[in-house]
Amino acid sequence: MENSLPDIKSMNKTELTDFIKEKGFPAFRAKQIYDWMHVKLVKSISDMTNIPKDLRQYLENNTHWIAVENLACQESKRGDTKKFLFGLDDGNAIESVWMKYKHGNSVCISSQVGCRMGCTFCASTIGGLVRNLTPSEMLEQVYEITRATGERVSNIVVMGCGEPLDNFDTLIKFIDLITNADGLNISQRNITVSTCGLVPKIRQLADYELNITLAISLHACNDEKRRCTMPVARSYTIAEIMDACRYYFKKTGRRISFEYALIEGVNDTKEDWEGLSRLLKGENAHVNLIPVNPVKERDYRRTAPENVAVFQQMLEKNGINGTIRREMGADIDAACGQLRRSYEKGLKENTEKG
Ligand code: SAH
Q1: Atom number, ligand 1, closest to the C-alpha of residue 123
Q2: Whether residue 58 is found in the same domain as residue 180
Q3: Cα(122) to centroid(ligand 1), Å
Q4: What is the CA(336)–ligand 1 centre distance, in A?
Q5: Threshold 0.90, pTM exceeds
Q6: Tell me: the pLDDT tens digits for 48-93?
């Protein structure tokens, strides 16, 4: 059931201050509450110990406290990747991944429950879009991982389940809250948002002139091929995406990342690296090559490591920067949406049995 009470964790400082004042409490309490939620990362209103009891009581009765429940955590053998399954208030579940790098800890978060983009290689999209997340549910993924690992998060990639630009206003609010100097104060430069290429939204994002990195899930070097795996390619051509990317670069000065998941025999041939090189020649671009994560429901195979290396060398030869994404958590259900799917399947089987 939908809870219509105000969600204070999704409010910025001005909104929270107005809310607190409106309810007849002193404005400075808003600053304290904000600090409890976004710096001290308390798990409940009752933990806000310097807030008077009447105000705590008011918040408990009249606001909707958003938290995520840590349902499961899978850890890679090397211990450098942890995948979390988080339960939401309405019984849905989402995934987030924690990755430890030399330069700091990175968290990959979800922006929606499910996804309506329909990419054929992606597990998140199999059941379609269930609902958008709220700003607080996006924040809580980072907060709960910080609590669970006891380590500071320095980088955020919005590359989990969902299409972030399909939940645009929430994404903007989330970035505003997580980069706030009175919150976790994460630098905009350390945030990456990945999109399958919603052209008007890329332009809209560019107009905010944020210092965040934009990643485009390209996965094919021409429209004909792209339409075979990515339905969004029927709405926007690669040429339109490239135009929007140039606009994004002009507005923000940020180089664009292009994601390219290598699928054996589908997009990993000579024709593909030649096409990709032609497409990206002279652009302010960087390519991330990722051997596709096989998804149980699909029969795609990943390109063999030696062929991934060849693909990268050929791009390099043509003057295109490409990095082979370090494979993290291959021994856990790493592909987007797979852990959530196994959880839901388990729930369904249990219900059927019981
Ligand atoms: N909707 C956004 C962000 C979520 S998907 C987007 O499309 O960019 C995050 C990234 O994982 C995208 O680049 C997506 O194409 C990629 N991805 C999805 N399924 C994958 C799989 N099975 N193997 C490798 N990458 C995958």
Answers
A1: 19
A2: no
A3: 6
A4: 7
A5: yes
A6: 999 999 999 999 999 999 999 999 999 988 889 999 999 999 999 9
